[in-house]
């Protein structure tokens, strides 16, 4: 089969660059890597057919240099550019510049990207397309009476938010009409004091919302389909940590309804390529949050359940091919992803750095690894902390969770702290196991002094002593045997007797 | 050889390791004697360990090249220890952080100081935030592991620090 | 969910022991490993909850010691024993002894195992059950006339085989009636000369047969289903090297027919657990070859395509659970497996030994690794040469093949020769790509002076020079810096000037 | 440094490697000059190599601890080389197997000799079977890599040999 392109440049690094590169190999497309100074030895460089230095260490000096990247792509004869995620992936100017230079941009039309990138414009477009958004005022209101009227319209509970707000100041949740006026006055006064602006908004308050998103795929003909939802409510600071599909709260009928809504959202902006429509879900209702106009970190769980390579379709569509899948595509089983981030969960998820010395990667039935890890890799502070993704697939949710627990038990990323340990703990909680969790779960659980499970504390201590003993013994053997010297000479040199040249 | 193994919480276990033959040991802890079989399989820290008939595929690393500071991971659970042998215990080489000892809190990565939450003389609890460090576009609270009394704050807001830079020095609380 | 057993002993080693152990973890079952002297540091030991030494190095001293294994299982409170494949897996005596000792044997009933283990008895049972076997005489015939009569019955071409035959002597293929008599006389004379016995058999001759097998699963109630076929015709010396499912020559109707035949074969012997019915397929006809009454090496490709964990079902069934799957189970996509054997394809697949120094394992979308490999593992001559299996899954055959090529390009097993390189070559042949191959293909192709594809010969030579240069430079740095000695002292010691203690 | 790189078929390539700066080289082969960038990333033989703008994730190992004997694997394709530097070439250290040189055929693994197919004085082609070794219940033909004239057969049928045992010694054919 003829490849969709002869050569493609990947304008990214790390795990996603390797991920895209692998699909290119599966399609027979030659790959071009670009790399910053610190990424010279990266897997995405080693596995590529050609590689070009961008220079620098920071994103601004390297992966954000759109002009330089386009120059390289033209120079080496690439026919297409895949931006991955982050960096230039949602930059409509870059997407347009790639097209202007005569290459295919592997992503959506720049116009759709621009509309969806603008909070206000996207909300207006979605309302016009009949996509549910979180009910709320579009203009600030000056007095409690107007607020009460609007609250009556959208129904309680509501949230009062300071127009100039930030940092949690001037925010009140109001659960009944009788309490609105007092709450408005104190919140408004608080906002006035804090920001010099007492104007307030009223918005629908969502109880324990879940973050559920829908994957869409569209082609240039205007055919758009969805590939079900992803449940992404295990978050801290709005960063997802564990994702699964199907969502424990979505049944087939809701899936079809949310899917149709996501397709309508995409169609409204003339979308093609892969994209994700994010929703907040609460008590059976769902509301448009935003659309991510790129491949997403957690796309792999959808691939496992639908048996579809989403990156492949992005590339085929960018080459003008028609989407041959239709909405009859069926999910099978359950998939879970854990992100392996370089960060210390015991110190507030502080980003961690270090050199990877002792790597052990899981494998076996139902386990997929999308990773950029290699032995002696240096984890630097310059880029996103995501190092790898563990993805599992099982015939049931229960099996998928157990497989993830098994995979995390096999994993060892030695030399840098990672989020793997906390993910393993979360998977074991009653909340996760039962599927009853929301976007606030992780932070509540961490703050609430989660139970410390330390099943091997004593054994680990004994192993530490054995290892220390072993290290000392190995060193003494090395010393004794080093360079063919007798133990006596080695001993002499170590203690400063005899030996020479120093 | 006798070892003192201390965990993060400052609890310690005394163990006596005697090599019976290559790779096989007798370990005595708390009056219990265990047969142990230990191999650093790949010389990178993947260890095959038998304690009696229980089997472990443990991952062991030294931290920051310090042989007394070991991280042991078993089935995804991670444990950090300080391990001292009897000679070191006799020589009193326990000068490093731990409860009841001085602690220097350092920047784990390069960044900019955007907040200082303590002043010299203040008493802080274990885990309490001391400094806010911005790195990778995220604000990170840097805390003390063991707590104590702030002896010195070495940085100020706006300052750029490199990885490993000393931020705050703590001393053990005087009331023990 | 309650595990089917609390604790299970795995009476095997290597890749299959790890494979079984992983499913046990997925089911919450504690695992007990047994190991020979050379396997002390193996992955199957490290990943188990408990481990017991069997002693010795040879199979007879270790994994074949059924009595000792049962003793260990009883001692540690195991409720079940999984035999893997090879060793005791098809030993009805061992299966019965496990049951007698009060534990569950994870496999079929000993009686079914015994019947299927006997070539003559199994053929008789299959004929009685209406399963097609290769038409042939059941008694030797003394003269050409009887042979001609039988040949007329089963149709040409036929094969004349010496009753006492072996080593290819006294064998003739006869394609028409006119040539039978002469062929009979010369073959019979040849047999008379070679073995002192001129009696001959007549059997149907299969043109370019393919080895195609069907996976079955049955429970104690007598429900038996099939999970489609596996195409295993890429063989040398009857050892499979590459397997795929679906077979390129089997359509849905044939799959259903072969599947029904395999189910009938299993039912005829009261089979439960997982098993494989092997067929020879030629020109649209298929014939029973034998039944393997155990899990098979290549089971994973069926798991990928059907989304079923076969080892899980073996365990559940052994615990008396009912098979909840039914024949409506549907395959999805295409899967290919390559066995990574320690052997040198350039020297007639001579088994290879060595220490694994430089491991690089593939990963990414569609790639599953079932492996017992680890860095510094010693490959010894004591056991089967299979070290690992690479299994890929794709939405089409084309995608699956490309993924396998990608995975093999990523793989490096440094320190021991493996079959990976020849597998990569085979995948690239026109025969494999078109799906037109039979069990004779690999040997014909190897013997026929296969084309040497050496796409990176020049680059590899340059890299060899760079590496040699690098090694010398690193050594000189180590020498200069080693032990704090000045380069002068180091130089002196190396050349024998000064230094002491030797 | 100049190198002579010889492949399995006995063809050789002359290369001149000059280090420009840490990890960057100029390589001259057959009059062509290439910019090269080379790193042994994990110190176990996983190498990141750029030759001009072409990128390679090569795996390199020495065979049997012999630094002149390198196996390079690129994208699954395996190449075996002998690499000698100019000093070794000048000193004539090419005493190891290769076309036109003596070759000792060894047992790759322990086993039992079940067949000897040649006798002293016989001339054999590259790859021709010399001895049949039974190991792992399989009969394996052991052949010569380069061929030559059988100088000595060191084993007999029925003999048990260990891994590495010399089986047959070959000398280069006298007619060149």
Describe this structure in words.
The complex is a heterotetramer, with 2 copies of chain A (502 residues) and 2 copies of chain B (176 residues). Helix content of chain A is 36%, strand content 24%. Chain A is α+β, with helices and mostly antiparallel strands and 502 residues long. Chain A folds into 4 domains: 7-106, Rossmann fold (3-Layer(aba) Sandwich); 108-133 and 207-332, ATP-grasp fold, B domain (D-amino Acid Aminotransferase, Chain A, domain 1), CATH 3.30.470.20; 135-204, Dna Ligase, domain 1, CATH 3.30.1490; 333-502, ATP-grasp fold, B domain (D-amino Acid Aminotransferase, Chain A, domain 1). In chain A, helix 7 packs across helix 8 and helix 12 (397-410) runs antiparallel to helix 13 (420-427). Chain A is globular, with a radius of gyration of 27 Å. In chain A, 55% of the residues are buried. Chain B starts with a strand and ends in a 5-residue tail after the last strand. Chain B is built from 1 helix and 16 strands. In chain B, strand 12 and strand 13 (138-143) form a beta hairpin. Chain B is 3% helix and 59% strand. The interface between A and B is large, with 51 and 57 residues.
Oligomer: heterotetramer
Q: What is the first-to-last residue Cα distance of chain B?
A: 31 Å
Physical arrangement of strands within the biggest beta sheet of chain B: 1-2-3-4-5-6-7-8
CATH superfamily of the largest domain in chain A: ATP-grasp fold, B domain
Report on the biggest sheet of chain B.
Answer: 8 strands, antiparallel, barrel
Termini separation of chain A? 67 Å
- For the biggest β-sheet of chain A, the strand order reads 13-12-9-10-11-14-21-19
Radius of gyration of chain B, rounded? 19 Å
How big is the Rg of chain A?
A: 27 Å
> Average pLDDT of chain B, to the nearest integer?
85
- Give the total of beta strands of chain B: 16
| Helicity range of chain B | under 10%
Shape of chain A: globular
């Amino acid at each position: 089969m003829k490849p969709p392109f002869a050569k493609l440049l990947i304008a990214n690094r790390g795990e996603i660059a390797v991920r895209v590169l692998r699909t290119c190999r599966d399609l027979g497309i030659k790959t071009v890597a670009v790399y910053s100074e610190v990424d010279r030895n990266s897997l995405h460089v080693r596995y590529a057919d050609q590689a070009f230095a961008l220079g620098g260490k920071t994103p601004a000096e390297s992966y954000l240099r759109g002009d330089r990247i386009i120059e390289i792509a033209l120079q080496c004869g690439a026919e297409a550019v895949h931006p991955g995620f982050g960096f230039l992936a949602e930059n409509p100017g870059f997407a347009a510049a790639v097209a202007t230079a005569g290459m295919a941009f592997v992503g959506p039309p720049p116009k759709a990207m621009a509309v969806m990138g603008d909070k206000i414009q996207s909300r207006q477009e979605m309302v016009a397309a009949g996509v549910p958004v979180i009910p709320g005022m579009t203009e600030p209101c000056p007095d409690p009476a107007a607020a009460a009227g609007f609250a009556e319209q959208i129904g309680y509970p509501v949230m009062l938010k300071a127009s100039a707000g930030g940092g949690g100041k001037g925010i009140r949740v109001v659960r009944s009409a009788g309490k609105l006026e007092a709450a408005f006055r104190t919140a408004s006064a608080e906002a006035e004091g804090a920001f010099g602006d007492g104007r307030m908004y009223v918005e629908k308050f969502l109880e324990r919302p879940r973050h559920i998103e829908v994957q869409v795929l569209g082609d240039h003909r205007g055919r758009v389909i969805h590939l079900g939802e992803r449940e992404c409510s295990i978050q801290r600071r709005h960063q997802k940590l564990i994702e699964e599909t199907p969502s424990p709260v979505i049944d087939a009928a809701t899936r079809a309804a949310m899917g149709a809504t996501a397709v309508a959202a995409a169609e409204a902006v003339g979308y093609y390529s892969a994209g994700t429509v994010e929703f907040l879900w609460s008590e059976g209702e769902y509301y448009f949050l935003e659309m991510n106009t790129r491949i997403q970190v957690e796309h792999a769980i959808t691939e496992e359940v639908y048996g579809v390579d989403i990156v492949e379709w992005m590339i085929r569509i960018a080459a003008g091919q028609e989407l041959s899948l239709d909405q009859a595509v069926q999910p099978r089983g359950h998939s879970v992803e854990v992100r392996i981030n370089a960060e210390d969960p015991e110190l507030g998820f502080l980003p961690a750095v270090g050199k990877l010395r002792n790597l052990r990667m899981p494998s076996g039935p139902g386990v997929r690894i999308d990773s950029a890890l290699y032995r002696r890799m240096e984890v630097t502070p310059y880029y996103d902390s995501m190092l790898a993704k563990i993805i599992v697939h099982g015939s049931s949710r229960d099996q998928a969770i157990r497989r993830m627990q098994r995979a995390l038990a096999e994993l060892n990323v030695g030399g840098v702290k990672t989020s793997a340990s906390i993910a393993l703990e979360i998977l074991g909680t009653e909340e996760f196991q039962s599927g009853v969790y929301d976007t606030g779960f992780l932070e509540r659980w961490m703050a609430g002094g989660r139970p410390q499970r330390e099943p091997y504390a004593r054994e680990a201590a004994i192993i530490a002593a054995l290892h220390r003993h072993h290290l000392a013994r190995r060193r003494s053997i090395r010393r004794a045997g080093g360079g063919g010297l007798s133990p006596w000479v080695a001993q002499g040199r170590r203690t400063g007797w005899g030996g020479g040249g120093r | 050889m006798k070892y003192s193994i201390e965990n993060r919480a400052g609890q310690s276990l005394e163990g006596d390791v005697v090599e019976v033959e290559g790779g096989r040991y007798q370990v005595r802890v708390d009056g219990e004697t265990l047969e142990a079989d230990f191999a650093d399989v790949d010389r990178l820290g993947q260890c095959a360990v038998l304690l009696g008939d229980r089997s472990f595929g443990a991952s062991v690393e030294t931290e920051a090249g310090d042989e007394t500071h070991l991280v042991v991971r078993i089935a995804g659970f991670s444990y950090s220890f300080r391990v001292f042998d009897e000679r070191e215990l006799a020589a009193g080489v326990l000068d490093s952080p731990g409860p009841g000892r001085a602690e220097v809190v350092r920047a784990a990565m390069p960044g900019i100081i955007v907040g200082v939450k303590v002043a010299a003389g203040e008493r802080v609890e274990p885990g309490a935030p001391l400094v806010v460090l911005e790195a990778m576009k995220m604000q990170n609270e840097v805390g003390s592991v063991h707590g104590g009394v702030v002896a010195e704050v070495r940085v100020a807001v706006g300052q750029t620090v490199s990885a490993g830079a000393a931020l705050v020095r703590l001393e053990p609380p005087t009331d023990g």
